[in-house]
Amino acid sequence: MSYGVSAALQAAVYQHLLADAAVTGLVGTAVYDALPAGTLPSTYVSLGPEVVRDRSDKTGAGAEHEVTVSVVTDAAGYQGAKAVAGAVSDALVDADLVLSRGSLVGLWFVKAVARSDGTSGRRRIDLKFRARVDDN
């Protein structure tokens, strides 16, 4: 197994979302790898947890990454969050990401979970994507 491509995959996803006109048209530059200190924007995108499984074979090292990208908002209702989540999904599904290490075989949507946080009133949509990478 190789976990070595993980940082390169995360950087490529982050840069790709920041470069996508539909995503930035909805949230500007509020796409975060780590949340900044201070007041957060009303709606933002955050890269989240990942689960990685070995997918090496006799041709070389590889891994399957289940990556979470979250859309968080304090706006009423889910309509705005769903528009952002749709733009994120459109940007990432089958994206041709260039990695600084290894190569992306494919990137697919797995599922989304929308929920509200009863205490803060924020709404959150966690999108899960599956990425298959080779460490070549």
Describe the structure.
- The chain has 3 helices and 5 strands; from the N terminus they run H-H-E-E-E-H-E-E.
- The chain has 136 residues and is of the alpha+beta class.
- It has a single domain (6-134), classed as 2-Layer Sandwich (STM4215-like), CATH 3.30.2000.
- It has a 5-stranded mixed sheet.
- A hairpin with a 6-residue loop joins strand 4 and strand 5.
- The longest helix has 14 residues, at 6-19.
- The mean pLDDT is 94.
CATH class: Alpha Beta
Tell me the total number of β-strands: 5
Report strand order across the widest sheet.
1-2-3-5-4
Fold-level CATH name: STM4215-like
Q: Mean pLDDT, as a whole number?
A: 94
Instruction: Please identify, by name, the CATH architecture.
Output: 2-Layer Sandwich
Provide the helix percentage.
25-40%
String of helices and strands:
HHEEEHEE
Distance between the termini: 12 Å
Largest sheet, strands/sense/barrel: 5 strands, mixed
Low-pLDDT sequence parts: none
Radius of gyration: 15 Å
Number of domains: 1
Which structural class fits the helix and strand makeup?
Answer: alpha+beta
Report the total helices: 3
